[in-house]
Write a structure and sequence with these properties.
The structure holds 2 protein chains of 2 kinds. Chain A is of the alpha/beta class. Chain A has 13 helices and 25 strands. The chains are: A alpha/beta, B alpha/beta. The A-B interface holds A 72, 381, 394, 396-426 and B 48, 335, 338, 348, 350-380.
Chain lengths: 482, 440
Amino acid sequence: MNKFTEDDLKKELETKEYEYGFYTDIEADKFPVGLSEEVVIAISKKKNEPDWMTKWRLEAFKVWSEMKEPDWANVNYEKPKFQDISYYSAPVQKKKLDSLDEVDPELLKTFEKLGISIDEQKRLSNVAVDIVIDSVSVATTFKKTLNERGIIFMPISEAIQEHPELVKKYLGTIVPTTDNFYAALNSAVFSDGSFCYIPKGVTCPMELSTYFRINEGGTGQFERTLVIADKGSYVSYLEGCTAPARDENQLHAAVVELIALDDAEIKYSTVQNWFPGNKEGKGGIYNFVTKRGLCEKNAKISWTQVETGSAVTWKYPSCILKGDNSVGEFYSIAVTNNFQQADTGTKMIHLGNNTRSTIISKGVSAGKSQNSYRGLVQISPRAKNARNFSQCDSLLMGDQCGAHTFPYIECKNNSAQIEHEATTSKIGEDQLFYCNQRGIDTEKAIALIVNGFSKEVLNKLPMEFAVEAQKLLEISLEGSVG
Amino acid sequence: MDLKEKLVSSFLAFENKGGLDLDSNVHDIRLKAIQNFEDEGFPSKKDEEWRYTNLKPLLKHDFSLFPITNDAVGFKNIKDYLINEIESYTLIFIDGVFSSFLSDTTHDECDVCVISSALTRPKYKMVIDNYFNTIAKENNSLSDLNTAFTKEGAFINIPKNTIVPKPIQILNFSTGSEKEVMLQPRNLVVVGENSHVQIIERHQNLSKNTTLTNSVTEIFVHKRAIVDYYKIQNDTENSSLIDSTFVSQKMQSVASVHTYSFGGKMTRNNLEFYQEGEHITSNLNGISILNNKQHVDNHTLVNHKFPNCESHELYKGIYADKSTGVFNGKVIVQQAAQKTNAFQQNNNILIDNGATINAKPQLEIFADDVKCSHGCTIGQLDEDALFYMQSRGIPKNEAIALLLYAFGNDVVEKIKIPQLKSRISKLIAENLGVNLGFEL
């Protein structure tokens, strides 16, 4: 076995920093920069959308132009200039693809670099993937198998054409266009995303997955995901994202809506690995995402997220527990290093009787980063016997970083039981010493300890993702010691 | 004319008529404060710090700012509100005016007197210049408002190495001489090195008329000094209180502020600790027992600036009927404050459906070698314990009250003056509607 010297480690650190930071030279169809009513109409036209959709977008645009950018989050950044962004960019495709063999080889290479060789994935891991590059969905696998069970899994732009009744019924019901600044912006300009419908009583036989990638410079990505689980169904949904390393800040403003009807269950996992910016804090993605789910009777929504990327993250996956006996869960690990800033958490709105929610949030801050948990647990006056348990733990590495918690608890029912606890500490020196003493170097020891610290959340991830997430944690924290 | 305009426009008259020294530094401080207030106005619900407390209905009243004093108040009117089982220094203010007849002040070893004389006498100029409005300034518009109208309040100045032999009681009474009265007492407490003092403060309305009290207290705790400050808030249903207390601590000092909120229409407590040295301990304790439509908002801040300090915070709440409780506990650990231990605990019980609790325990930590935690719970009484007591022949109501009493006991146990402890116990029992039948 070769000896792993310090030089090797140094080299590895330099190269391994952000391994998805490449740029693929694919010809792209890109709109000129700027946002106006015309651009919104043009996007809608490009997608060949029906009238109601265009109207919906224009309404959202109107709302957006009257809104102010929020600044209550505990993050500092240069506000994106909304007129300097191109709102549509798509890899040029000559015609509609029937099989993967026809996909642009450059594109396929990109996927391979990302570690998602579509062919291989098809055979081995039993995951159906929808891939969105820049603003457009480029490939969806496993359509056939899913079709047999009546599961609809396709780009949302196609869903608007093929299943307008479903889209019309649910789009914007959970996250209305007026919800917030970025949700309004997204509603106006979103170009694609994933749409998923699981029919009554069907258990989706495989993990559904979407892979997002920003490729072009000077663009923003605005995708929209809509997942509907009909009565008694089950689906597990994965989401991953990467972007090239650039000096500029790129904007990513997505909206995810989940609807779990009676007795349904949705498990939504995210591994967010947008480019976090370089060591000096230059570049990186602004990740301003609105994610929300609605639970009807006996339904369950579970959010699991691993956040390692983005220069600025602003994200609160939430559950509206409307039906009786519904369950909401939120498991999160947020790792920030260098100059990253994360303000993330969840909202649990208890409306029905006997609703339960669990929040486990783990934050790891290193370098000069700031990591905040911001959560809301709200018990409405009519929600009897609601139960909530929240736990937020923060781990600090180095004395330049910060960890903050802003939990809001609003309780208006006397039968509710709510517990919240939070701790902040650093990695125990005795733990490190123990590892060192057994021959594990400090870098590896920290990875080990952080993995242990985040285990409660990592355990909730589907197998394929858990391995990837563990590696990601290690990479994100490399070079943070000392 | 709304209240803000009224306040701003009466400021000039106040300064000219009040017999105040217009050449002093205090005049400049006042002027600046009223300007700040004019710029900012009263906080609204849009203000993050006032998210759960709405001042608007309160500000609609046509308050009299300089009420007529009622001279007819005698000892018999106020004796119930004094802790008279112990010897103490007392400072008694009737409608914002000091009553020397009812009070018991001293200048022997330490100064226990009123701020109006401290502001004007050259003897205290140094103290006033060094301390007055140094931590309260530019903090919020309400304390600015108080600063602008500073006229009367307690002035406690303890020199080095002095153990004040008796506790000090500060009582503010309003007699309802006018229908709607606004009072703005201002207290200044300076405790020298190695000294020790205990202070009990109370605001009491003697009538059914509406009062709004906007009180500000600044406390300076020097090296190795120990200060215990007790606030009793058990006012009538038409009385509202906005209390801002600022504590600045030097190395190795110990300061504890205890807040007992049992009554009043609206009570807002801003309690802020600033640690200005190493090895400091700050204690914050509070208990709120509310019913009807009462509203209590406890806003606390502990700002850790130096290494090796501690803070312990424990707030409990019992809310019945349609009452509302707010807890917002902020702990900031600055980057230099390594080895900080900061603990915060907030437990609440909602008795009736209709009562509300809004809690926001908040940690902002910029240092890595720290131990910080907060816990917050909302729950009910233990059914099993209740059943057990009932099975032993204790009526349900009484059993509930006993359990609630036990719930709040952690906080009561921290009182260091035995007579005060039994008084608070009695008040709690009274509020819970139970006769304990035993003395503590």
